[in-house]
Every structure is written in structure tokens, then in C-alpha cells.
Specification:
- It is a single chain.
- The protein is mainly alpha-helical and 308 residues long.
- The chain has 2 domains: 21-225; 245-307.
- It contains 9 helices and no strands.
- The longest helix is centred in the C-terminal third of the chain and has 85 residues, at 187-271.
- The protein starts with a helix and ends with a helix.
């Protein structure tokens, strides 16, 4: 390894920047939302299905049997859709580096959530008018419990929460106006207030989730860049070490030649030898010494240029 070959070693590290940082953050957020909803899908499915079955058991009456059976059947459609999602996306890490698959899952999840919410929206029209005031209040409180449980399960992806809330609660005042058999005073106003408050909480939770995930993804990206820069620095340090070792070897050769030449000349001077042979020997040694000094000078000039 010579000095000329070492001149090709880059002495500066070029900064690598990604032109698609925003796209990477958006993709990472979509994957994080899909992972979160997938993780809590089982709890959401069991919770909604359990409420439907418990309300059916609590409201059961012979004159209401056909309506309740139709309502339960509607609710089980939502359960079936969510169960299909759990089955087809059961593999761990199925969204890793697959933002398109994660986005598709979010759309399907929102659709299944709309169906589950529509179950309770249908109940306002088909079941609630036939209930007593106490039972109507129980029905409302059950939906409220599911809504605030949905703040945890759905809010990271705000459209999923809106799909559930809108179909389960928002339309209920309109549906209640279609019936004259509502016994709870101010029920429509209470439903509107609950809808507003829960939606505000869901919106804030969704924004907080996005900010946290974006911050986390930025930290991971910065750590990756720092790791990359550290690896480049280590590589540059190794190249520098190899370069210095090569330079030391190349400098040692002319220095040894100079030492030998000076030793020969010293011996000739001490012995005070004469004659043509001695004169030619001195001239040859001085020529070699001159070449070695020139080589050393070129080496030092190259080192100065590299350092600049």
C-alpha cells in the first residue's frame, strides 16, 4: 500500500439525508395505528358482543322476542366481521414494513366498527321504544360504557371511533323522535351531550397518539442516523490507521537508505581512502542520498496536501 493509493481514501464524510422523511413518518404512524387496533380487537369484540347478549337477556320478554332475536342477529354480524379480521391478521408483525397492508386493515376495521355501532343504532328504533324508562336508561348507559371503552380501543384511529359513535349514538335523537314511547325526560339532550364530550376526548386522544408515535419514530430515525455516522467514523478511523501504517512503512525505506549511505561515507572519510574507485563510490552514495531526500520531500508534501 503506497501513498498514491491512499489518496483515494475519502477524508470527509458526506451527510446522508432522506428526501422522504414525511412519507416515512406517515407510514410508520399507519403501521402503529394498525398494530394498536389489532392488539385491542379481541377485547373490543368480546366487550361489544357481551353487552349485546346481556342486554338481550335482561330485556327478554315474549312480546319482544322477535325484535330481540333480530337485534342479536344484527349484533352477531359485527362479531363475525371482527372475528374474520382476527383470523386473517393473526400473525404477529403482519404490518412490519407494510404500510399498504396496515392501511387496508384500518379500512376493514372501521367498516366492522360501523357495523357494530349500527347494531345499537338499530336498537334505538327497534328495541328502545318497547322498554320501560328504567330499561331505556340501562340501554343508554350500556352504550356510554362502550363509547368510553372505545376511547381506549378505537381512538388512535379517529375514523374508527367516529364510525362507531355516529352509528351507535349520534342518530339516536332522530330515531327517538320517530317514536312517542320514550319515558326518560331530556334523553335526547343527554345523548347529544355525551356524544359531544366523548368525541372531544377521542379527538384529543387520537392527536396525542399521533404526536407520541411521530416523536418515537423521529427518535428511532435519529438513533439510526447516529449509529450510521458512528459506523462511518469507525471506518474512517480504521482507514486512517491503515494509511498511517503505510506511510510509516514508505518513510522507513528512504530513511534506512540515508542511514546506510551516511555510514558508508563516514567509513570512507575515517579511512581516508583514495583513488578512482573511492571517488566513484562517494558519488554514487551522494546520488542515492539525494534521491532519498527527494523522495522524502515528495512524501511530506503529499502529507501536507492531504491534511489540507
Amino acid at each position: 500500500m503506497t501513498l498514491s493509493s491512499e489518496k483515494s481514501i475519502p477524508m470527509k464524510i458526506k451527510r446522508k439525508t432522506s428526501p422522504h422523511k414525511d412519507i416515512e413518518l406517515d407510514s410508520g404512524l399507519i403501521i402503529a395505528q394498525a398494530d394498536y387496533l389489532k392488539l385491542n380487537l379481541y377485547v373490543a369484540n368480546v366487550g361489544t358482543t357481551s353487552i349485546v347478549l346481556l342486554l338481550t337477556y335482561f330485556f327478554w320478554a315474549d312480546d319482544l322476542a322477535s325484535d330481540l332475536i333480530g337485534w342479536v342477529s344484527f349484533g352477531l354480524v359485527g362479531t363475525f366481521c371482527r372475528s374474520l379480521l382476527m383470523y386473517f391478521y393473526r400473525q404477529p408483525g403482519c404490518f412490519d414494513n407494510k404500510p399498504s397492508a396496515a392501511k387496508h386493515y384500518l379500512y376493514l376495521y372501521t367498516g366492522a366498527t360501523v357495523i357494530s355501532g349500527a347494531t345499537f343504532g338499530y336498537g334505538w328504533l327497534a328495541i328502545v321504544p318497547h322498554l320501560s324508562s328504567y330499561e331505556q336508561l340501562i340501554y343508554l348507559l350500556s352504550i356510554v360504557a362502550l363509547l368510553f371503552g372505545g376511547l381506549f380501543a378505537y381512538s388512535p384511529y379517529f375514523p374508527a371511533y367516529i364510525g362507531y359513535s355516529a352509528t351507535a349514538l349520534w342518530l339516536s335523537p332522530l330515531l327517538l323522535n320517530l317514536s312517542s314511547e320514550i319515558y326518560v325526560t331530556g334523553l335526547a339532550f343527554g345523548i347529544g351531550l355525551i356524544s359531544l364530550v366523548s368525541t372531544m376526548f377521542a379527538f384529543r386522544f387520537s392527536n396525542t397518539f399521533k404526536l407520541n408515535k411521530e416523536l418515537q419514530l423521529n427518535i428511532y430515525r435519529l438513533l439510526a442516523e447516529v449509529t450510521h455516522k458512528r459506523d462511518e467514523a469507525v471506518s474512517a478511523n480504521l482507514a486512517k490507521s491503515r494509511f498511517l501504517a503505510s506511510v510509516s512503512h514508505d518513510l522507513r525505506q528512504p530513511m534506512q537508505a540515508i542511514s546506510l549511505t551516511l555510514n558508508t561515507l563516514q567509513q570512507l572519510i575515517l579511512n581516508k581512502a583514495g583513488g578512482e574507485n573511492t571517488k566513484q563510490l562517494v558519488e554514487d552514495n551522494l546520488t542515492g542520498l539525494h534521491h532519498s531526500v527527494q523522495y522524502l520531500n515528495s512524501m511530506f508534501e503529499a502529507l501536507v496536501s492531504i491534511s489540507r
